[in-house]
Design a protein that fits this description.
Blueprint: H1 3-18, H2 44-61, E1 71-72, E2 75-76, H3 78-90, H4 98-101, E3 106-108, E4 118-124, E5 127-133, E6 138-143, E7 147-152, H5 156-161, E8 162-167
Length: 169
C-alpha cells in the first residue's frame, strides 16, 4: 500500500468519525427532558429569532480582525467567535476550541442545515474552521482574511472545504 493510499484511508476514517462524535458524558443540550420541544416542533419564529440574533451579533462584531487565540473586539479567532456568539446571543455554552466544538450536539446533513447550526470546514491538512449557519446558505464566522463576516456555503472556496454540521441548539 502506498503512502498516498494509506493517508487517504486515515483521512477518510478521521472524517467519518469526526463528524459523528458526541462525547459520552454529554447529551444534546437543545431539548432538555420535560421541555416539550422536539427538533421537529421547532417553529419558524424560533428560526427567525435565531437569525435576528445572529444579525445583531454580526453588526456588533463585523470587521473585527482575526487573531489566533484572540477572544475580543481587538481580534478573535473562529472558535472564540462561535463561543462568544453562542454564549452572549444564543444563551448556550460551547467549548473554546474547534475540535471540541465538533464534538458538541448532533450531526446534521448538509441539506438539513438550519439557523444556529455550527458549520465546520477543513481549511488545510491540520486546520479546522467553524462558523454559525444563518439562512439561505449564509454563515457567520471570523475569517482569517477579512475578520468577522458573513459568507455563503455555495462560494467555491467554502463548498470545497466543507467538513460537516453539528446542531447544538
Amino acid at each position: 500500500m502506498s503512502t498516498k493510499q494509506y493517508l487517504s484511508i486515515i483521512i477518510f476514517l478521521f472524517l467519518l468519525t469526526g463528524c459523528g462524535v458526541v462525547p459520552r458524558d454529554s447529551a444534546p443540550r437543545s431539548n432538555p427532558s420535560g421541555s416539550g420541544n422536539t427538533p421537529m416542533a421547532a417553529s419558524v419564529s424560533s428560526f427567525d429569532r435565531v437569525v435576528n440574533k445572529l444579525h445583531i451579533a454580526h453588526r456588533e462584531w463585523e470587521g473585527t480582525p482575526y487573531r489566533l487565540g484572540g477572544n475580543g473586539l481587538n481580534g478573535i479567532d473562529c472558535s472564540a467567535f462561535t463561543q462568544v456568539v453562542y454564549r452572549d446571543f444564543l444563551g448556550e455554552d460551547l467549548p473554546r476550541n474547534t475540535r471540541e466544538q465538533l464534538g458538541e450536539g448532533s450531526g446534521v446533513r448538509r441539506g438539513s442545515i438550519r439557523p444556529g447550526d455550527l458549520i465546520f470546514f477543513r481549511t488545510s491538512r491540520n486546520v479546522l474552521h467553524v462558523g454559525i449557519a444563518m439562512e439561505e446558505g449564509d454563515f457567520l464566522h471570523a475569517s482569517v482574511s477579512s475578520g468577522v463576516m458573513i459568507s455563503n456555503l455555495s462560494e467555491p472556496y467554502w463548498a470545497g472545504k466543507y467538513l460537516g454540521t453539528r446542531r447544538v441548539l
